[in-house]
Design goal:
The chain has 7 helices and 6 strands. It has 142 residues and is an alpha/beta fold. The protein has a single domain, classed as 5'-nuclease (Rossmann fold).
Amino acid sequence: MEKVVIDSNVIIAAFATRGMAQALFELCLDRYEVIISEHILTETSKALKNKIKVNDEKIHEIITFLKEFCTVTEYKKLKEKISRDYSDDNILALAKSANAKYIVTGDKDLLTLKEFEGTEIISPRELWEKSRKNTFLIYEKP
């Protein structure tokens, strides 16, 4: 099964709204091994509390769900700074350590990189389109 790192901004959108981010997150849980880290869990928790104003009980439920259905992975920090935002380097390091096929993010700084050491960096919409195309290929008649 291919591995995908989902950035905290996509996870937050998946739990805060109905729509593309939620559908994509569900698709990822179904078709990929979703790789996250303690860093992503912390960022998600903080943003849900401070930006979205989710109560502590609901945040606990979300974090518990993520720990149960995603693979929480440790990673080695990168030796040199790659992205403009230092915290984005944590996402890159996680993808490298996990040998992920994709990083799915809404972060423009990461998206401008397009690729990092064999991992494609794409938006939620791009992964949705790729997955949709692959689904149709599977069901085509020979």
